[in-house]
């Protein structure tokens, strides 16, 4: 299958939730200013995604071959057991919003703009997953991102980008020499159908991570992913 681009994805921001996360009291002067920035951001933002429906071709104990490219990760390999199709993707809040956020002169406005940018990226991922659910009748799914676990290091971004083709031309996301994505408010990964609940955070012991999506389960790796 050829990669598919959704541009733009809907812009979705939960303003009350965002104000709460920023510790801004509703009705305050700060709330007025933050809401003004949110309105500006929503008008400018053009989040987008490139994704590809790809097929698992073969497996070894610590790797899986998808559309001819090898992803080396024991956890990914086990998570894809019994599956044929996966969705590789790069989703971004877009260069338009990155330029707007970086252009904020005031320090506090810059901080809020960064949080708004992140919230728009989260909303874009929700819209993308909704699209997959509706288009491919996915019931439940989970995703893994290169670099989120030592088991699937950041260097695997190169394989993911190779699978998706010219990501920069398609949605403006560039992979730097140091394997970071520009604009930084971008996420990449493999999404797969699953009956089980899975989040990489379950295998990640990092304390006090602001983005944690599931509690750390110290026994899970040995129980499910250890070889032999
Ligand atoms: S806990 Fe934080 S660092 Fe660890 S996988 Fe989850 S989001 Fe990433």
Q: From the 3D coordinates, which CATH architecture would you assign?
A: 3-Layer(aba) Sandwich
Helix content: 25-40%
- Count the beta strands: 9
Bound molecules: iron/sulfur cluster
From the alpha carbons, calculate the radius of gyration and give it in angstroms.
Answer: 19 Å
Q: Which geometry do the CA atoms define? A: globular
The overall average pLDDT, rounded, is: 96
Q: How many domain units?
A: 1
Low-confidence stretches: none
CATH C-level category? Alpha Beta
Our measurement of the CA-to-CA distance between the termini, rounded to an integer number of angstroms, reads 35 Å
Structural class: alpha+beta
Biggest sheet features: 7 strands, antiparallel
Beta strand %: 15-25%
Q: Which fold name fills CATH's third level, the topology?
A: NADH Oxidase
Helix and strand element order: EHHEEEHEHHEHHEEEH
Number of helices: 8
Describe this structure in words.
With 228 residues, the protein is α+β, with helices and mostly antiparallel strands. It has one domain (4-198): NADH Oxidase (3-Layer(aba) Sandwich), CATH 3.40.109. The chain is 38% helix and 21% strand. The chain contains eight helices and nine strands. It has helices at 15-21, 29-44, 74-79, 95-102, 107-136, 157-164, 167-171, 220-225, and strands spanning 4-6, 48-60, 63-66, 69-72, 85-92, 141-144, 174-175, 181-182, 186-193. The strands form two sheets. Strands 1, 2, 3, 4, 5, 6 and 9 form a seven-stranded antiparallel β-sheet that branches. It is globular, with a radius of gyration of 19 Å. The protein starts with a strand and ends with a helix. The mean pLDDT is 96.
């Amino acid at each position: 299958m050829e990669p598919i681009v959704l541009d733009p994805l809907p812009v979705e921001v939960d303003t009350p939730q965002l104000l709460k996360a920023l510790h801004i009291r509703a009705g305050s002067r700060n709330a007025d200013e933050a809401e003004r920035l949110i309105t500006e951001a929503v008008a400018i933002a053009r989040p987008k995604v490139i994704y590809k429906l790809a097929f698992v071709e073969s497996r070894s104990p610590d790797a899986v071959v998808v559309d001819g490219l090898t992803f080396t990760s024991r956890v990914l390999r086990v998570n894809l057991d019994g599956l044929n199709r996966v969705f590789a993707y790069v989703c971004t809040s877009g260069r338009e919003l990155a330029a707007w956020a970086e252009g904020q002169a005031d320090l506090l406005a810059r901080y809020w703009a960064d949080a708004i940018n992140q919230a728009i990226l989260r909303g874009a991922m929700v819209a993308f997953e909704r699209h997959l659910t509706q288009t491919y009748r996915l019931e439940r799914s989970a995703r893994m991102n290169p670099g989120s676990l030592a088991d699937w290091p950041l260097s695997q971004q190169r394989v993911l980008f190779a699978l998706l083709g010219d990501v920069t031309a398609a949605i403006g996301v560039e992979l730097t020499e140091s394997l970071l994505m520009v604009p930084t408010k971008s996420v990449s990964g493999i999404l797969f159908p699953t009956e089980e609940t899975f989040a990489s955070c379950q295998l990640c012991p990092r304390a006090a991570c602001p983005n944690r999506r599931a509690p750390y389960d110290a026994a899970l790796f040995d129980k499910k992913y250890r070889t032999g």
